Amino acid sequence: MVTKQSKIYIAGHRGMVGSAIWRQLSDQGYTNLLGFTSAEFDLKDQQAVKTFFEEKKPDVVIDAAARVGGILANSNYPYQFLMENMQIQNNLIDAALQNDVEKFIFLGSSCIYPKMAPQPLKEEYLLTDTLEPTNEWYAVAKITGIKTCEAIRKQFGKDYVSLMPTNLYGTHDNFDLKTSHVLPAMIRKFHEAKENDNAAVTLWGSGTPMREFLYVDDMAASVIFALENVLPEHLYNVGTGVDRTIRELAELIQKVVGHTGEILWDAEKPDGTPRKLMDVSKMHDLGWKHKVELEQGIVNTYNWFLENINNFKEVKMS
Ligand SMILES: NC(=O)C1=CN([C@@H]2O[C@H](COP(=O)(O)OP(=O)(O)OC[C@H]3O[C@@H](n4cnc5c(N)ncnc54)[C@H](OP(=O)(O)O)[C@@H]3O)[C@@H](O)[C@H]2O)C=CC1
Ligand SMILES: C[C@H]1O[C@H](OP(=O)(O)OP(=O)(O)OC[C@H]2O[C@@H](n3cnc4c(=O)[nH]c(N)nc43)[C@H](O)[C@@H]2O)[C@@H](O)[C@@H](O)C1=O
């Protein structure tokens, strides 16, 4: 039974998702949170992870640590996105099992589903067809994590559960233009172009793919929902259930930022999967639902970006 005094280790506690989880747990009176930076403790190091669990013996593990990036980073570094993510998650999950951790929350991604699966994507579509080529390595790593947690539920009866976030955005996001996801990249590009006399902004692909976006505070709330409840199944989609084209997203962000110049599209860059809208009815039926709609989330994120733009430690710009 998880209580406010349970020792909860948040792997990746400084990341966009991990820091939101930490903030919300602290605000809700959880007094025994553990977190370490990758400089203090490399989760790719199996022995270091084993020693950490033997010494610290957490009651709960929330895994928000991973090698994360947008479509270009995934496409350019397939080996790292596969190997690093398998090392991190396998070290954490196995050490948790060996040290009798009662609850483990694993974060996957909507890219685990087949590229051309029917939409909206249901959890049972996992492994029914081939993956999107631009991020299949990251997806295979995530699928391994999901199946590992499922095996532990089946064989050892432990409450290890996997949440599948849709595209996430928000405060403490990554704004580096080479490795970031589309939403923070657009905020930065439109902002810098506005400051440069409303110069034209060049975006990637055709603008026709569709994406669903969940604000990071809602994602953190879904993790705490999974922490405080024993969810009956092993895998749950977490999203808003609403998507839009990348072009529509660009026009919305352009409006929020106040850029008035031209938008150009670089067809040399990949579009990625045409659509990956998730069916979120299972989490809705259990009682979780998102609260922050897209335009408000973009306003919050842009305000945070402006407040922190000169603090490079906070805003990952390179
Ligand atoms: N952002 C998104 O759109 C989506 C994210 N997700 C998933 O959500 C989770 C969190 O993502 P997000 O918050 O965006 O990612 P971030 O990149 O913001 O944070 C990742 C965290 O992982 C930590 N980390 C990475 N490698 C190591 C390592 N070798 N050893 C120790 N710590 C490490 C980093 O620690 P440090 O800061 O100390 O270096 C960082 O805090 C991930 O599992 C990701 O796959 C799923 C779907 C969408
Ligand atoms: C969360 C999810 O995130 C990734 O999948 P993705 O959603 O395809 O990634 P993305 O956000 O980078 O792109 C979404 C769309 O947006 C277009 N796009 C336009 N202009 C820019 C731009 O300037 N930057 C970026 N990054 N994309 C742009 C881009 O061409 C694409 O069509 C994987 O990590 C995947 O594994 C995963 O889990």
TrEMBL record:
<dbReference type="InterPro" id="IPR001509">
    <property type="entry name" value="Epimerase_deHydtase"/>
</dbReference>
<feature type="binding site">
    <location>
        <begin position="165"/>
        <end position="168"/>
    </location>
    <ligand>
        <name>NADP(+)</name>
    </ligand>
</feature>
<comment type="function">
    <text>Catalyzes the two-step NADP-dependent conversion of GDP-4-dehydro-6-deoxy-D-mannose to GDP-fucose, involving an epimerase and a reductase reaction.</text>
</comment>
<comment type="similarity">
    <text>Belongs to the NAD(P)-dependent epimerase/dehydratase family. Fucose synthase subfamily.</text>
</comment>
<keyword id="KW-0560">Oxidoreductase</keyword>
<keyword id="KW-0521">NADP</keyword>
<feature type="binding site">
    <location>
        <position position="189"/>
    </location>
    <ligand>
        <name>substrate</name>
    </ligand>
</feature>
<feature type="site" description="Important for catalytic activity">
    <location>
        <position position="111"/>
    </location>
</feature>
<comment type="pathway">
    <text>Nucleotide-sugar biosynthesis; GDP-L-fucose biosynthesis via de novo pathway; GDP-L-fucose from GDP-alpha-D-mannose: step 2/2.</text>
</comment>
<dbReference type="InterPro" id="IPR036291">
    <property type="entry name" value="NAD(P)-bd_dom_sf"/>
</dbReference>
<dbReference type="InterPro" id="IPR028614">
    <property type="entry name" value="GDP_fucose/colitose_synth"/>
</dbReference>
<feature type="binding site">
    <location>
        <position position="271"/>
    </location>
    <ligand>
        <name>substrate</name>
    </ligand>
</feature>
<feature type="binding site">
    <location>
        <begin position="12"/>
        <end position="18"/>
    </location>
    <ligand>
        <name>NADP(+)</name>
    </ligand>
</feature>
<feature type="active site" description="Proton donor/acceptor">
    <location>
        <position position="138"/>
    </location>
</feature>
<feature type="binding site">
    <location>
        <position position="142"/>
    </location>
    <ligand>
        <name>NADP(+)</name>
    </ligand>
</feature>
<feature type="domain" description="NAD-dependent epimerase/dehydratase">
    <location>
        <begin position="8"/>
        <end position="239"/>
    </location>
</feature>
<feature type="binding site">
    <location>
        <begin position="107"/>
        <end position="110"/>
    </location>
    <ligand>
        <name>NADP(+)</name>
    </ligand>
</feature>
<feature type="site" description="Important for catalytic activity">
    <location>
        <position position="109"/>
    </location>
</feature>
<feature type="binding site">
    <location>
        <position position="211"/>
    </location>
    <ligand>
        <name>substrate</name>
    </ligand>
</feature>
<keyword id="KW-0413">Isomerase</keyword>
<dbReference type="Pfam" id="PF01370">
    <property type="entry name" value="Epimerase"/>
</dbReference>
<keyword id="KW-0511">Multifunctional enzyme</keyword>
<feature type="binding site">
    <location>
        <position position="204"/>
    </location>
    <ligand>
        <name>substrate</name>
    </ligand>
</feature>
<protein>
    <recommendedName>
        <fullName>GDP-L-fucose synthase</fullName>
        <ecNumber>1.1.1.271</ecNumber>
    </recommendedName>
</protein>
<feature type="binding site">
    <location>
        <position position="181"/>
    </location>
    <ligand>
        <name>NADP(+)</name>
    </ligand>
</feature>
